[in-house]
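User: My advisor asked me to double-check a structure prediction for Anti-sigma factor antagonist before group meeting. I don't want to rely on an old file, so could you generate it fresh from this sequence?
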Amino acid sequence: MKITQHATDTTLTLVLNGELDASSSVVLDTELGKPEILKNQKILIDCQQLNYISSAGLGVFISHLQTFQDADVKLVFFNMQEKVHNVFEILGLDSLMTIVPSEADAVAV
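Assistant: Sure, here is a fresh prediction for Anti-sigma factor antagonist from the sequence you gave:
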């Protein structure tokens, strides 16, 4: 798993590339747990190159969800591959998290 970051004044975009499993979820958890991340209004997660997500990977997002909500930081997923989106959908996470088709839609949220 490779995580690339792009930042603007109010938005942080994380580009996930590869497989988000138990070992790589630790790296993502560290990134999302940094105090400075809460200075953003939005955290956009680009999932175009995310090929697989495990329960550990999902757990990272779930564990940070309340912190982001409390800080009024929007977490938005976009460019999600169908097989990854299906995992979110089966677990009902698509109703807890914002998932949109494109980066333009994510920026507009």
